Amino acid sequence: MLIILFIYGTCIGSGLVALADRYTTHTSIFYPASHCDTCQTPLAYWQLVPIFSYLLLRGRCHYCQTAIPATSLLVEFTAGLVLTTLTPTTIIPLLWLGLWGYAALCDARTQTFPGWVSYLSLIFVLYDHPFSSWLAGGLLFTLINWIWSRWFSSAIGNGDLDLILTYALLHDIEHAAELTLLACSLALLQQQSGQRLAFIPHLIVSEIFWWLWRL
């Protein structure tokens, strides 16, 4: 079963990478078929197998020899590893992680991501909570985005705050603090003077670390 879950996870990871690529290039998720972004040649079925195809192709396009980002391999392997932790009690956290994993891939490329990710993740983490939690979570979510839209020199994006909020609602404030602290440490290692940094990827890497560490 772990092997099956790992295979499914690699497929999900491959899909998230493809969706993020389509978001980056502003193209439809349905058309055209999977192709090389450089030479535009459609990919054969054997070039679309998660992990295996990357290793077989040695990280390069079969047609034009352009290097394929190693991010694809890393995301596929990590998604496979994470899905092996699937149980009835981890379904919602894994759905949350998948949504924000997609947002992290988009954020890493464009420093933006689809706004519906924030709303859908909020619904996921509150779906079995009492009305008071829905009210408090909704008010906090609205307040964060309202203040951020009027804060002209904000040092952090509203998406980063949305992620931290939904994480705190999913787990608790203590775990959210751990997540944020580790993400800030990772970001400081990468930060360059004067460069705006995509923070959601660091938050997601931190969450994956804590998730696998605790399990």
Automatic annotation (TrEMBL):
Superkingdom in the source lineage: Bacteria
Residue intervals passing through the bilayer: 44-61, 73-96, 134-152
GO MF, any single term: aspartic-type endopeptidase activity
Gene Ontology biological-process annotations: signal peptide processing
Pfam families, A to Z: A24_N_bact (PF06750)
Keywords: Membrane, Transmembrane, Transmembrane helix
GO cellular component: plasma membrane
Record InterPro entries: Prepilin_pept_A24_N, Prepilin_peptidase/N-MTase
Domain Prepilin peptidase A24 N-terminal, residue spans: 7-86
PANTHER family: PREPILIN LEADER PEPTIDASE_N-METHYLTRANSFERASE-RELATED, TYPE 4 PREPILIN-LIKE PROTEINS LEADER PEPTIDE-PROCESSING ENZYME
Protein name, as recorded: Prepilin peptidase A24 N-terminal domain-containing protein
